Amino acid sequence: MGLHSLFNSPKLHLRFLVELSKLIPTLFANSGQLEEKFSDPHLIRSSAPLIEKHVDEFLRVRLQQEMPFITPFIGEKTIGTLKNLFMQELETLFPEVMKGFLTQIRNNNSSNHLTNEQLVKFSPDKFRKILSDSLSTDLVKIQWIAAGLGFLFGVLEAVILMLFL
After folding, report:
1. How many helices (H) and strands (E) does the chain have?
2. Taking a C-beta distance cutoff of 8 angstroms, is the pair 52, 86 a contact?
3. CB 95 within 8 A of CB 38
4. pLDDT tens digits, residue range 118-158?
5. Contacts for 80 with CB less than 8 Å, ≥ 6 apart
6. What pLDDT, on the 0 to 100 scale, is given for residue 75?
7. How far apart are CA 31 and CA 44, in angstroms?
8. What residue spans define the domains of the chain?
């Protein structure tokens, strides 16, 4: 009964949300590693096929749709050269853009406000389920330990009573 009421406690739920809302901005405040990961050249190289596909589609389809008068002057060699130039530029531009983006997120108070809004929507039922799922094995262990200790103290009390009475 005590543990059940603990899981359903609005005070615990609120305290958990308050602590979580304090924790999340500190995770972004210490995001030097996050900036390093997002600006890693390997990340860009691993995304290169997808980016290259979009650049290729842009050069072959969209550019020719938007500027049909340029179509006769763009051949395969020009498309290949432009694609290589775009990819080289993206390799230098992408890390800087991601660093700026992460800095803006970190410095923007509205992102903290959005986080708090989402946390307020976090239902007590969902909280209870997560808490009970993550603690269920530990709670069973605690129950067995408490039962064992209760039995041990009961036997000890019975022995003491039999010796002194």
Report:
1. 8, 0
2. no
3. yes
4. 666 666 777 777 777 777 788 788 889 999 999 999 999 99
5. none
6. 86
7. 19
8. 31-122
Residue 74 DSSP SS3: coil
Tokens of 42: 């390997």
Token pair in block for residue 66: 């938007």
Taking the C-alpha atoms of residue 41 and residue 96, their distance in angstroms, rounded to an integer, is 11
Q: What are phi and psi of 123, to 5 degrees?
A: -75, 145
In degrees to the nearest 10, what's the CA dihedral of 7, 12, 14, 15? -140
Is this model's pTM higher than 0.85 or not?
no
Measured CA to CA in angstroms, residue 2 lies from 5, 104, 139, 150 at distances of 5, 45, 12, 17
- The first and second tokens of residue 151, run together, are 């039995």
Please report the pLDDT score of residue 157 as a whole number. 92
107-121 pLDDT, tens per residue?
765 556 666 666 666
Which of 16, 22, 41 is CA-nearest to residue 127? 16
Please report, for residues 42, 60, 111, 122, the alpha-carbon distance to residue 24 in angstroms, rounded to integers and kept in the order given: 27, 44, 10, 15
In the structure encoding, which two tokens stand for residue 81, read together? 């050269």
- pLDDT at position 1 is 45
